[in-house]
Amino acid sequence: MPRVKRGPKRRANRHKTLEAASGFFLTKSKLYRSAQEAVEKAQRYGYVGRKRKKREFRGIWIVRIGAACKQHGFSYSRFMDGLKKAGIELNRKVLAEIAYNDATGFAALIEKAKAALPQAA
């Protein structure tokens, strides 16, 4: 079996890694081994960050909806329960957008949610 020295392929891989590390501090952008470690760590952070971003945005939407509900004297959980019982299927992203930009539309949703809930005795 012939011996393979991997010249062009190795150079291309190293160039790709150093290209990804451009802008990193000191040797992390100049030396291949340091750059490789830095790029791998950055990719791990990026992967985790993409998952965390979804979680954080859901939290932001819930806070916005809850704040808009409080302005109408209603709690977030009762509002969501009322919407579900009224058959209104809007996700939290859309509800937060309505709460932020369309106060009258959100007030109408609050009224529909209130009407769908059984009245406390």
Describe the protein's architecture and organization.
The protein has a single domain, classed as Ribosomal protein L20, C-terminal domain (c-terminal domain of poly(a) binding protein). 74% of the residues lie in helices and 0% in strands. The chain is built from five helices and no strands. It has helices at residues 7-20, 32-71, 76-86, 92-101, 103-116. Helix 1 packs parallel to helix 2 (32-71), helix 2 crosses helix 4 (92-101) and helix 3 (76-86) packs across helix 5. The mean pLDDT is 95.
What is the strand and helix layout of this fold?
Blueprint: H1 7-20, H2 32-71, H3 76-86, H4 92-101, H5 103-116
Helix pairs in contact: 1-2, 2-4, 3-5
Fraction in helix: over 70%
How far apart are the termini? 87 Å
Give the full name of the CATH homologous superfamily. Ribosomal protein L20, C-terminal domain
CATH class category name = Mainly Alpha
Q: How do the SSEs run, as a string of H and E?
A: HHHHH
CATH topology-level name: c-terminal domain of poly(a) binding protein
Radius of gyration: 26 Å
CATH architecture: Orthogonal Bundle
